[in-house]
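Lab notebook, page 48
Experiment: co-folding of the full assembly
Goal: obtain a model of how the components sit together before planning crosslinking
Operator: M.T.
Materials (sequences as entered):
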Amino acid sequence: MSQLSALTWVFAYLSLLTVGGGLAAFPELKALTVEKFHWLGFQELIHLYSLGQIAPGPNMMMVAAVGERVAGVIGALVVVIAFFGPTGILTLGTGRLWRRLDGWRWRDPIQRGLAPVSVGLLVAGSISLAKGALVGRASVLIAGVVFLLLIRTRINPAVLVLCGAVAGLFAFGAP
Amino acid sequence: MVVPSAPPVEATLIQIFHAFLLIGATSFGGGVMAYLRSSLVEKHGWLDDESFVQLLAMSQSLPGLNSTNMAVLVGDRLRGTPGALVAIAGICLPGGILMFFLGMLHRQHGARPLVTAALHGVAAAAVGLVAAVAVQIGRKVLTRADDLAFVVLAVIGVSVLHQSVLVVLFVVGAFAIWWYRPRDEAPGPPAR
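Observation: model returned without errors.
Model output:
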């Protein structure tokens, strides 16, 4: 029972930090699920987050897998509702208010100011992920190739992440 | 002032759920926004391009994922609160079920050496992916030198000083909003 209430507040709290994208909350996701509650190891969290990049839809559905690990089907349901409920309600309310705030002088400064901060949080999230995910030269090489291909071409990222799995088999699979 | 009203388009709850379920099931590889636009603007005609961009800007500055925020905003416009509910449920369901089962498989087989090797590769590729996304969004959003300063401040706060994301969001966010505060003397309505 206490696990479920911990899951609820952890993921409701994390959802409020996802300004600009789910990755912004990654450092805090690690701090809470790995270091504070020991629900899973850092490598496991990284693997689930990375698998989540292959799944269709919103790119943080991996939270369902964390909930499943802690408390099965109920855990997954609790986490998904906690993660999408509060921000959903907030967005619903603000969306209605926002239209009425059309002439409000602070509307543009808020959008203007939060944009670079959210980019910074994305970069910080990338750094946190990279610290755990780059285990040796081969992974730096894989990350670099994927980065360059995505910047230079229009290849579907999900395909590249799957290619990463094959590259990983060759790089890390040899006994 | 002219407030954009709800579009005079009829959409049933089932149609909304179906449209978002389809987006949730097919939008592999991120870039959900492109899938949303092609479905909502082009296929169904539920939004025009201008409203789509407006709602997108709002989604980006609110907490929550951009894609689920869009689902809530569009669903609410079409059918009020029930519309918002079926839209967010539809877009989350396919990926959520997939990740539920992938998580189970990972728990049972994740420790096998070959699986671990493949997952190390997936994680490395994911680092390349998130770095590319950060650069691509950065290119679009950052237009001035002072923008870059706020990026650096946020990174230092989280990655160097190890402050919680919440603290950084509040401190650097408030500073940035104040930095871009309204400068015009006349607090009247904006020229339109």
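Interpretation: Chain A touches chain B through 116 residues (CB under 8 Å).
Next step: discuss with group before ordering constructs.
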